[in-house]
Amino acid sequence: MTHRELELLLDAYVDGELALGDARELEAHLTECGDCARLHEARLVLSDAIRQQVPAFRAPDPLRTRVRAALRSAAGAPNTRRRLPPLVWRSLALAGSLVVAVGSWRFALDRAHGQALTDQVLASHVRSLMPGHLADVASTDQHTVKPWFNGKVDFSPPVYDFAGRGFPLIGGRLDYVGGRPVAALVYGRRQHLINVFLWPAAQGPVGGAAAVTRQGYHLLHWATRDYAYWVVSDLGLPELRDFAGLLQRGDSATAAPTR
Amino acid sequence: MEPNELERFEAIVLPHLDAAYTLARYLTRDDHDAQDVVQDAYLRALKYFGGFRGEESGEARAWVLAIVRNTAHTWRRRHRADALATEFDEERHSEAVTGDHPAAALDRDTARESVRQALERLSPEFREVIVLRELQGLSYKEISDVTEAPVGTVMSRLARARRRLRDMLSAAQEKD
Lengths: 259, 176
Fold this sequence. Notes:
Chain A is α+β, with helices and mostly antiparallel strands. Chain A is built from eight helices and seven strands; from the N terminus they run ααααααβαββββββα.
C-alpha cells in the first residue's frame, strides 16, 4: 500500500477496526514514516481529550419517569392511532385559510376541489413528518414495500427504488386523501423527505406536472393512464422535477401496472 | 399490546436510556429538546418493537439509537426555521463550520470546555459519529446500522470529523 492509502486507514487502525494483515502493514509503516507517526500520535491525543472533556450523559430521572409512563399508556391503548395535538390542527387550519397562489391548473378539475385536495395532500405530508408517522413499512426494498400494500388498498402501486439516482426509497404508508385510502411512498434526498401519493384515477394534466408551492413545500401533480400522482417535499423545485421525471419514466416503463 | 411484551421492551430497550439521551443531547444541543426527542423515540420504538429481532444488548442499543437519531433529525427539520441554521449538506458544507450555538458562545473562553464546544460546532453528521464512536464505543458496523450509511462511509466520516475537530482545536490554541 502507498503512504496515502495507509494514511486513510489510520482512523480504522486506532479504532481497532483494521484487518490483521492491514494492521501489521500499517504498524510497519508507522516505524518508518514520520508524518504518519505524528498523525497517529495526534489521533490518540484527540481521542483522550474527547473522553476526558466530553461527558456521556445520564438520563435525568424525570425523563426516566416520563418515558415509563408514556410507554405504559401507549401499551395500554394499542390500536388507537394517536390524534394530532390541537396546536397542529390549528396551524393547519390557519395554513388552509391563507390565500395562496395556485399557479396554472390546466386540468379539468374545478378549482375548489383542486385546492381541497392540495390542502389534504400537504396536511398528510406535514403529518407524516411528525415522529412515528412517516412509514408503516420501513424498507429500502421495493419488493418489500410493494407487496405490503396487498389487502390494504385495492390496487398494487408501482414502487421503484431510485437509490442509484440519489433518491433512495425509505418506506411506504397507508394514507387517506380525497375521501379514499391511498398509497404513500416515502423517498429521501440528502436530508429531505419526499412523499409520493398515488391512487387509481386518470384525472389531471397527463404528461407535464403542475406545480404549487405552499408554506415552503412544493407540490407536483400529474396523472398517468392509470394513476393520479402527487409529490410533496421541501426539496428544491428543480430537483423535485427530476424526481417526478424518474417516477414518470418508471411508470411508463411498466407495461400495465397490476390493478 | 400484551403486558409481557411491554415488560420485554422495558427489559431490553429501557437500559439504553442513558445512551439514547446522550446521543439526543449532542444532536439537539439542548436538555429539554433532548428529553422530548428521547420520549418520542421510545414511543416509536415500542410501536416497532414487534419487528425487532435482535437478541444481544448491543443490537438493542444500535436499534434504539437509530430511532433516536431519526427522531432527532426529524426534530431538526421541524425547527430549522427557528434555528435559522443552514441545513447541512455534506457536499456543500463539509468543510464549513456550522454556526455557533449560543450556549457554546457563552462559555467559549473556558479552556476546559473547548473540546466539547468544538464538537458542538461540528455538523450533525460529524457530531453523531464522534459521539457514537468515542463516547459510546460503537463498532463501525453498529454505527453503520445506526446512521444507515455504509461502513466505508462511517470510516471516512469519522476520519474527516476528527481532522475537523483537530483543526478547530489547534486554531483555538493559536489564538491563546
